[in-house]
Amino acid sequence: MVIFIAGLIGTGKSALSQALAEKLGIFHYDVDEIKKLILPTDPNYEYNLKNNIIFSEETKAKVYCRVVEDFPRLAKQYKTIIVEDVMNNKNVRQILFDGAATYFGGYMLVWVTCDEDIIKERLEKNQRPGHMLKDPFAYYLALKKQFDDFENPDIIIENNTDLDASLETLVSFVTSKIK
Q1: pLDDT digits (tens, 9 = 90+) for 46-91
Q2: How many CB atoms lie within 10 A of CB 3?
Q3: How many CB atoms neighbour CB 28 within 10 A?
Q4: Under 8 Å CB-to-CB from 92, ≥6 apart: which residues?
Q5: d(CA 88, CA 126)
Q6: Pairing of strands 81-85, 2-6
Q7: What is the secondary structure of 48-109 as a DSSP string?
Q8: Cα 161 from Cα 156, distance rounded (Å)
């Protein structure tokens, strides 16, 4: 099974997915590492980052196809993995969902949400070292306009409080589903 943890930037999905992986001993797949390889090949890479323009569906599809290329190998090593990303486009994220169904036999979708004031505070205060975004909150606002809501998430985590409270809710849910 693939546990997809998705939501807009600043919702805390990276911290939550890494904490979940550590707590349950599940492999955490780092999509950001694939983005660092694929996104710079986009001819508008620098312009998009500088101007907070969301990358094209084609570029995002390349990222997700590359992620799915790793699924057969990972499925041989792990029964369950965690994959975390924004997954803002309905059509493009289907690549991941189909790959999970093919190689892992299924998936669950965790949608992480958060109040915008908290997102702004997090993005202004906690700029991750080496992150490619120059102005994370401006990028969040642009991304929010193009975000396709998830139709049937397995659970929605409102990550407005401390990480431990959200993690406790998520651990309880995940362990009840992957037994």
Answers
A1: 898 888 888 999 999 999 999 999 999 999 999 999 999 999 999 9
A2: 28
A3: 18
A4: 57, 60, 61, 64
A5: 22
A6: parallel
A7: HHHTTPPPPHHHHHHHHHHHHHHHHHHHHH-S-EEEEE----HHHHHHHHHHHHHHHS-EEE
A8: 14
| Interatomic CA distance for residues 148 and 87, integer angstroms | 9
pLDDT in tens, 148-160: 999 999 999 999 9
Torsion angle of the four alpha carbons 157, 151, 108, 70, in this order, in degrees rounded to the nearest 10: -110
Place of tokens 């309905």: 90
Token pair, residue 66, equals 């590359």
How many CB atoms are located within 10 Å of the residue 33 CB? 9
- Which amino acid, residue 12? G
